[in-house]
Amino acid sequence: MTTFATEFQQKSGQYTTDRGFRAFIQKGLSGYYKKRDENKARFQSWQGARDHAAEIKYEAINNLDRHLEEFAEKIEARGAKVFWAPSAFEARDYILSVARENRVRSIIKSKTMTGEEIHLNDALQNEGYGVFESDLGEYIVQLRKEPPFHLVFPAMHLTRKQISDLFQKELGSMPTDEPEKLTMIARGVMRRKYCEADMGISGANFAVAETGMISITENEGNARLTTSLPRIHVAIVGIEKVLPRLEDLALFLPMLATAGAGQSMTCYNTMYGGPRQPGEPDGPEQMHVVLLDNRRTWLLADAEQRDALGCIRCGACLNVCPVFKNVGGYSYGTTYQGPIGSVITPHLRGLQEWKHLSAASSLCGACTEACPVKIDLHHHLLQNRRNAIRIKSVPVEKVAFTVFSLLMGHPWLYRLAVILGRIFQPLHPLVEDTILDPLRAWTCSRAFPRVAPSSFREQWKKERGEKSA
Amino acid sequence: MSDGKTIILNRIREALRNNPAPRPHPGHGPLGIGKPHSAPSVQTCREWLPKVGATREEQIALFALQSEALKTEFYRCATIGEARQIFSKLVVAEEWKRVATHDAPDNVALLEGATVETLYADKGYAIDALESCDAGVTCCECLVAQTGGVMVSVASAGGRALSVLPPHHIVIARSSQMLPDLTAAFDLVKQRYGKNLPSFLSFITGPSRTGDIERILVLGAHGPKRLTVLMIED
Known about the structure:
The complex is a heterodimer.
Chain A: H1 3-16, H2 19-42, H3 46-62, H4 64-77, E1 81-85, H5 88-101, E2 106-109, H6 113-117, H7 120-126, E3 130-133, H8 136-143, H9 160-171, H10 179-196, E4 199-202, E5 206-208, E6 213-218, H11 222-226, E7 232-238, E8 242-243, H12 249-261, E9 268-272, E10 286-292, H13 296-301, H14 316-320, H15 322-327, H16 338-349, H17 351-354, H18 356-359, H19 366-370, H20 377-391, H21 395-409, H22 411-424, H23 440-443, H24 456-468
Parallel strand pairs in A: 1-10, 2-3, 2-4, 4-7, 5-8, 7-10
Antiparallel strand pairs in A: 5-6, 6-9
Helix pairs in contact in A: 2-12, 16-20, 21-22
Chain B: H1 2-16, H2 45-48, H3 56-70, E1 73-77, H4 80-93, E2 98-101, H5 105-111, E3 117-120, H6 127-131, E4 135-138, E5 142-144, E6 149-153, E7 168-174, E8 178-179, H7 182-193, E9 200-204, E10 209-210, E11 218-219, E12 226-232
Parallel strand pairs in B: 1-12, 2-3, 2-4, 4-7, 5-8, 7-12
Antiparallel strand pairs in B: 5-6, 6-9, 10-11
């Protein structure tokens, strides 16, 4: 067993037994379900919108080279610099070199999961740069030196008390149990940072090929400030973020808002095409767009799961997933949690090391149903399991399934097994809870069902016999 | 740098060559089954999105409804004079000393006679000076009925920061600027600017907000705590 799988087992065991925590997560999500359903109902057809969105993404991803070239060409014509980063290393290296060449002192960031993916904060801090997360949730987890718990709601696992204690300790603020006061404390701190920062780093939700623009969706206004005030703007953009036309946003922006946060529209949806243009009063002098591959092309090569590149990172699949809701975001140990994380992490970071995530699923299909771009998530989990076995079979499982198919294929053998079960089950308590127990994996947390004294088949025969007699 | 570009483009072409993915399947079913489609037409996304009435009056009513849900303060003003009255009341009520704006006829008309200092952000500004303003007054490209949003750009809102840095954002708009949806808004800016789109376009849909603490809504996370839209009939 790999260390990642062991860690997943340990952490998920820990979180699932914490009832208070599970209830807290459920409560946090309950408001989301209500608002999401209200806003879905406002659509003339949510299903039609999903089909349409899936079609647009299909076109975008299956002509990725063409759209990317168009995007780069258009945004470069507007004065932005595009850097193509084959891996995380090149992306980090480039951003560091931009910071060095421009003698940057202070860096402000708005939320970027791609930035998390390439561990950008560590790289910048190791070089001595002060980096401040401006999204409230991200700022809170940054102060706690934790990664985001959820790709859209980074600090949803924390209570106001924990946040108040954290602010008191790190910022010297007065304790309070009002979310509003806590938000205003962070607002005050961050206002100074915006004014001082000379580099702003953002992600992007979409990259529009037609006009050479990136689109950023947010509620707080922190991304707008990050991209307006500092003299350098760096945007990290996964290559799969491309959309062919500006008008496509007319569909994707409301869908992202509804699926992601249960809103009809997120507060700020902003399109940036280059740095400050001649005649414009403000905006950064430089804009750098880092187009990141980092093994996305591996996923692209898997035609069966290619649709997973259509993901708009709304987090809807996490919010409905019975596994996520119980094991929480930290059990995964990945940048992207929940069903989408379980599907793509094996592609981005190695199948054998991350195949256990695909097994941690009830295959209920809630994720697939929730996905606004119709990624076939639960089937992809099955495909990951199949692919993992194809490459490297697990002997114990192989033996188990051989025995199982033998039993199921031969009724007499099955009957024999049932009889043996009846004979040996009374002896089970002798070894139960000891390491000699062959069923320990099951019995340590659940009771093993008793073998019925007579089988259905036997009862049927008996009943029939009595009736005809 | 062109190296990375060649590497990535080659990887993409290699991955896509002779390796077609199953088409999305319409309806509830999984992918892979179903007849091939033609590429979606841009117009059709209107069929799925929330319904918007065809007349301006219906659109204004929808905008008002959305504003209420978003906690945007929306006023219909018969004249610029009426808008000026609302503005003066805000100046007094919130004790404004200094407001930021940009040079446009409606802004100038709104601020006429107001007892506040004025900073014109489009003439260049110090960040701290703009930050210390009590409100930002801007025009907009259009209003969007479907979402209750306001579309601003560098050109129509005096730059990028004016509409987000001060704690209260006041938008002055005309009723003729009401558009049904986002598609119409995109059409408008394309017509207006052609290939020279501003480097910044934004849909502002309500005052800044966050739910990052226990998923409880708080207004005014980093951007304006209040958003007021003054729409003058024309």
